[in-house]
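Contributing new records

If you add data, match the layout below exactly. Sequence lines come first and carry their own label; structure lines follow with theirs. Keep one chain per record. Anything else will be rejected by the validation script.
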Amino acid sequence: QSCSACQENRYQTCSSTTNTCQCPGNSYWNGSMCPLQLFANATCSQIDACRSDLNLSCIMNSYGEFTQCSRGSIYYFRIRKLKHG
């Protein structure tokens, strides 16, 4: 979104370098607001929902659905499941 959209949304701020709306640190855009990023083992539904500063990613299950915050690659558990399945 361009910076003009940020003015309508109290959660986002304007980045002067990219001229786009961004959520503050340790938060993510869920489509309507900027909730705080989640910790390990929390249920998540999108790739950027977990604390990246703690090396957490929203991992996928064998169906390609985002499921929970965990360390490592978002595809690790999916690949491992496919190799053993």
